[in-house]
Each structure stands twice: as structure tokens, then as C-alpha cells.
Amino acid sequence: MNAAPHTPSLPVEPLGLSLETELRSGLTPLENGGVTSARGFVAAGVHAGFKKDPSALDLALVASEHPCACAAVFTQNAFCAAPVEVSRQRLDDVGYGTVRAVMVNAGVANAATGPEGVERARASAALLADHLGCPEDEVLVASTGVIGRHMPLEPFRRLVPQLVAQATPQGGAQASSAIVTTDTHPKQVAVAFDGAPLGHPGVTFTVGGMAKGSGMIMPNMATMIAVITTDAPVAAPHLHSALSRAVGLSFNRVTVDSDTSTNDSCFVLASGAAAPHARPLTEESPGFELFESALVWVCSWLARAIAADGEGATKLVTVQVAGAASVADADAAARTIANSPLVKTALYGHDANWGRIAAALGRSGARFSQSSVSIDIMGLPVCRRGLAVAFDEEEALRRFERPDITVDVYLGAGSSSAFMWTCDLSHDYVTINGDYRS
């Protein structure tokens, strides 16, 4: 339903909100960077037969040359998959430990498969451990694909030797291609920074990563699998703390369709290969915040890429809410707007229908007075003090041609803020998910 126009007596300035994570000074994105940009890691991707297309890679490996610190966070879905159970246990249910490798298959989720699924996840890890020459509990596993199907072990028996043989420092691109499902393209990135602020002058540290995710996307976490690496020496408990904060600012800021997967997993491995004899960094170490900012930026880049590649999406949408009474209120408002099918379909249709945004706000549970609310769409003021602002519809249509769309909301109830990344909702979303198993 459209709101009736109301033109204020004075010109209206855009809200100009900017809540997203920016690239911090001192961080340098690497051209064609990815999960093996950090030293001390090799990767590979092969076709094992989990996907029907013989040209599609569907089994990935990321391995450290030596046992290294690892931290991870997993889905909060109570119907979690077998590989999530196994990897959690191998990190002692605290989310960190020492590992050698992460192996990911795409095409079969190994979820809702009971004790047999757990045994098969362990067996696949054991096959990899034998070829890497490491203990079985130093191999973590992740799966993505159709829920409810048992994962065959024969592909692992046939292809794990080839996977290990092909793993090189140049194999990151193949690994990132091997973990996708309905994604339209692989997602990988890396950033470098000077080690001097961390007490290592003359050393360059790197954080790189890969991720998959396109549908069944909603925190906590967004439905996805990510493997991130760094050649900085970081103590495992502090690596986990940094990852948890980074995920809260990135992967937990994404929604495509409000559904949380059974298989979400995010791993970060720290080889220390850039400073092999250095004492591991902790949160009390000088310059630790520079490492953490690099981790946050990589996670944020990958999270945005997931939102932009949402199933059937044509636009990346950033929802920013400021002036909330609490962080919880800001978060509830941003999530409700980002998840609203009516908002998302309006944006797909290039319709600056702010009434749908206002309606979503009203049911979000956030506290505010409607007479204090302001809304901008793509920098165009469309609502002030809860009333419509006349705007140029032709200019709105021109702005809708951009690949990125912003929705800014000011509640006028406090000083807290939050943001979410989402996408528009197109006809193709129904087509993709209606045909997912066929």
C-alpha cells in the first residue's frame, strides 16, 4: 500500500548513514587473493561425483603444511548435520584447537542422516588423515547440498589420494569452486598488512578466505561454509574470540530468505608461517586489533558477496538502522526489514514503496514513535517524521539501476544502530528452489 504524499516546507537532506565495516588504513586487498594467499597452506578441488555434472568440482581441501591453530563457529540450527557434530567434537566443543586440514564436499549435506551419517563423516576424515599422515582428529569436515541423503564413501576412497596429490599453494581457486551449490560464482578474497605494529617489522601478514552461500541464508549463522586462513601466529583461544566477533559483524549480518541451514560452518586456521619462530599473538599483544580488523574485513567481504549472490538476486541491499533505543531494537528493525518479502519484491520491481518498510518496522518489536521515524531509499528521502516526502520517481528509477541499494532508517528513539545485508526477491528464487532436488 502506498503512502499519501506530504511535502515538508523545507528541503529535506538525506540521512547519510554509514554503518558498514570499511577497509582500515594499513590493509591492502590482494589481486586474485584467496584461501591460499596466506603462507603455509595448500588447497585443491576435484570432481568426486557428489554432483551430477562431470565438469563440476565438488570436493575441496584446505590443508596446513604443519598442525596449526584453528577456531570455528557453527550453525545454531538444532537439526545440525553430521559433519558439524564431528568438527565440533574435534574442537573439544569449545570452538578451537589444533588441526591440519579442512575437507568440504558439495552436493550431499549429510544432514538428517543419524548415527550412520556421523560414522560416514568420521570415515571420510580418516581417509584424508591417512593420506596426509596426521591423526584423524586433526581433520575437520563440512558438507553442503541436499538434506536427508546418506553421503557415499566411495567418492572419498577414489578421489582423496588425487585431492592430496593436487593440493598446492596455487589451488585456492579450485577449492573455492568445489564448495559451491546454487552459487553463481566462487567467492574468495585476501588482504595483507604490515607486521610492524604487531612487533614483526619487515614481515607482511595475510588473511585470506573462501566461502559459499546463496540460499537458505539467515543468521545465526548465515547459511554458508567458509574457510579462512592466516599466516600470522595466533593462539587458538584468542583466534576463536576474534572470529566470534568478526562473525557477529559479517556473516551474522546476512539474510537472503530467513532460513538457517543445518550445515553452517566457518573455520579459521593460523599457520604462523610468516613468522615461524614467533610467540603466538593474544588479544593483549600490541597490534592485535590490526589482525582482527583484517579478519573482520575478509569476513565482511565474503558476507556481502553471499548477499549479492542470493538465489535469483539482482541487487545487493544494505539496510541500516540508527537512532534505536537499544542494539537489540536496532537489530530487530534491520532484520525485519531485510527479511520482508514485500520490501524485497518492491525493490526487485524498482518500486520505492517506503510504506512497506514502515510496516515492517511496525511489526519488528523495536520501540519508537512513528512521528520520529525517517526513511531514505538509495539516498532519496521518502519519509520524515513518519510522513511521506515527495520525491522524483524518475530519479528513483535511475538509482534502481545501480547494483547496490541502500535503505536507511532513523528511529529517533536513542543512539544504537545495526545493519543487515540482503538482496531483492525475484521470480528466479522460486524457480531455483522449486527445482533444487531435480
Any chance you could write out the topology, listing elements then pairs?
Layout: E1 27-29, E2 41-46, E3 59-74, H1 82-90, E4 96-108, H2 114-132, E5 139-146, H3 154-166, H4 172-178, E6 187-194, E7 204-212, E8 225-230, H5 236-248, E9 265-270, H6 288-308, E10 316-324, H7 327-339, H8 341-348, H9 354-362, E11 374-377, E12 380-384, E13 387-388, H10 393-399, E14 404-410, E15 416-423, H11 427-434
Parallel strand pairs: 4-5, 8-9, 10-14
Antiparallel strand pairs: 1-6, 2-3, 3-4, 3-9, 6-7, 7-8, 10-15, 11-12, 11-14, 12-13
Structure description:
By secondary structure, this protein is an alpha+beta fold. It has helices at residues 82-90, 114-132, 154-166, 172-178, 236-248, 288-308, 327-339, 341-348, 354-362, 393-399, 427-434; strands spanning 27-29, 41-46, 59-74, 96-108, 139-146, 187-194, 204-212, 225-230, 265-270, 316-324, 374-377, 380-384, 387-388, 404-410, 416-423. The strands form 2 sheets. Strands 1, 2, 3, 4, 5, 6, 7, 8 and 9 form a 9-stranded mixed beta sheet that branches. Strands 13-12-11-14-10-15 form a 6-stranded mixed beta sheet.
In short:
The protein has 438 residues and is an alpha+beta fold.
Mind describing the biggest β-sheet? 9 strands, mixed
What Rg do the Cα atoms give? 23 Å
Please identify the oligomeric state.
single chain
Report how far apart the termini are: 37 Å
- Class per helix and strand makeup: alpha+beta
List segments where confidence is low: pLDDT < 50 over at least 5 consecutive residues: 1-10, 215-222
Net shape? globular
The sequence of SSEs as H and E is EEEHEHEHHEEEHEHEHHHEEEHEEH
Helical content class? 25-40%
Q: Please, how many helices?
A: 11
- Estimate the strand proportion: 25-35%
Task: Tell me the total number of β-strands.
Answer: 15
What average pLDDT do the residues reach?
A: 90
